[in-house]
Amino acid sequence: MSKRTSAGAKAVKTEDVVVDKQTTLLSEETGHFSLIRALHLADLITELNGLCGVLSIFSSMRYMAGAPGELGNLWAALVFMPLGLFFDFFDGKVARWRRKSSLMGQELDSLADLISFGVSPAAAAFAIGFRTPADHLILAFFVLCGLTRLARFNVTVANVPKDATGKSAYFEGTPIPTTLSIVGLMAYWVGQGWVHGELPLGTLLTGSLGEFHPVLGLFVIAIKVAPRQHPPIPRHSTTQHNKMAEDTPELPLPDRGATLVMRVMPDDNSCLFRAFAAAVLPGDDLSMLELRSLVASQIQEDPDVYTKVVLDNREPDDYCRWIQTEEAWGGAIELAILSKHFNVEVCSIDVQSLRIDRFNEGAPIRCILVYSGIHYDTIVQSPSDPPHTIADNPPELDKRVWDSYDDDILVKAQQL
Predict the structure, then answer these.
(1) Nearest-angstrom CA–CA distance, 106 and 163
(2) Is the Cα torsion angle 109, 111, 115, 121 positive or negative in sign?
(3) Which CATH code for domain 14-29+239-415?
(4) Is 402 helix (H, G, I), strand (E, B) or coil?
(5) pTM, to two decimals
(6) Burial level of 73, CB count in 10 A (0-12/13-18/19+)?
(7) Cα dihedral angle (361, 364, 368, 369), rounded to 10 degrees?
(8) Which of 118, 163, 221, 315 is the most buried (most CB within 10 A)?
(9) Residues near 330 by Cβ (< 8 Å), separated by ≥ 6?
(10) Using omega within 30 degrees of 0 as the cis cutoff, is the peptide bond preceding 82 cis?
(11) Residue 299 and residue 293: Cα distance in Å, rounded?
């Protein structure tokens, strides 16, 4: 759906809106410092979190390269991790104070957390003396669990409610508090001199290939008890959707052995993304989240193209936060970005005027959307039996895209 009057009324030429990313980044106007200029103050503080994690790892390595009794570098490795936590909390404070955040900041935060609260504790544990092959597998499991959680968060972040600064309202990332509790425990062991052969609880299966330190079970527990909240999943009325489906228009296509039919999208503020996904990405349950994130990422990466003027008088960062919320509709800007990214021509038929607005015109294939002024649906070709007046086959058999030179299907779609 779109709060803009229509896809056509606000439409801009695709070639004017979407340009080759590499050309933009390497242009003289953009320069070689565009990456640095794209960072907000909060992002720079997030980088300090990552720096603490890297220095912690280096300190663990320096300890292993020296004498086991010289614990200075080991203490440094342990201290850098809570210092990283300070920066992790502080970047959020700065973002809220300055009311600025970015998609790059979200990615930086996840990556910095993985280094500081995933890899760094594992490296410190290895340095302390957890060095059997089985220990390696347990520590690797700990790190990979953190990596997987963060990856899952990053692909679902578009559907997670945000506050005014774009910060996710639901936590689903690396278990920071429990990780630092383990760091505190390791610091206690170091203070007591319980390192290397003096580690608590000793080893099990000693002398075998499966020898391991049972105390490493704390790392597994830390992963299992990490706080996690599930964002509410919007549920939409099937009654309204079924009623709309009953009135679905159909047009016989006897020469194609099929019926042209409009597949009705749910009225859930994501109808544009659903209509596009139904045509181009059928069967992808995460496509709504991915498409919203894709649009926001493209806008962030091409600041010289997606200016406040282009983005309906919104600041780019504000627009990116908005388009990733459930309340945000979509329109010409989103269709231009998606059509270019997936190399497909999108033909949007305005129901009121029968005008066809084309996005990424000239692509090898095209899909057809229907725009009512407040809602988007998808037109498909469903195989059917003579006289082809009823599309009674399941949607899985639909033909959703056509060759771009097939103008006859556009004429039929307008008749529909």
Answers:
(1) 13
(2) positive
(3) 3.90.70.80
(4) strand
(5) 0.52
(6) middle
(7) -60
(8) 118
(9) 1, 2, 270, 272, 273, 295, 323, 376
(10) no
(11) 10
**Tokens at 304, concatenated:** 């010289």
The CATH number of 38-224 is: 1.20.120.1760
> 147 and 225 in contact (C-beta within 8 Å)?
no
DSSP string of 77-131? HHHHHHHHHHHHHHHHHHHHHHT---HHHHHHHHHHHHIIIIIHHHHHHHHHT--
CATH 1.20.120.1760 in the chain, residue ranges: 38-224
- Can you give the length of the chain in residues? 416
Indicate where the chain has its CATH 3.90.70.80 domain(s): 14-29+239-415
Dihedral sign for Cα 348, 350, 355, 357, please. Answer: negative
Q: Return d(Cα 261, Cα 264) in angstroms, integer.
A: 9
* CB half-sphere exposure, 194, CA atoms < 13 A: 12
Alpha carbon 263 to its chain centroid, in Å, reads 27
Q: Which two tokens stand for residue 145?
A: 């669990």
Tokens 């979200």, located at residue: 106
Spell out the per-residue pLDDT of the chain, length 416, in tens. 444 434 444 443 433 433 334 334 434 444 555 566 666 787 888 899 999 999 999 999 999 998 888 899 999 999 999 999 898 888 777 766 665 555 667 778 888 989 999 999 999 999 999 999 999 999 999 999 888 877 776 665 544 444 444 455 455 544 565 678 889 999 999 999 999 888 999 989 998 989 999 998 888 776 655 444 444 444 444 444 444 445 577 888 888 888 888 888 888 878 888 889 888 877 665 567 778 888 888 888 888 888 888 888 888 888 888 888 877 888 888 999 999 988 999 999 988 888 888 998 888 999 999 988 888 999 998 888 788 777 777 778 888 899 888 888 888 888 87
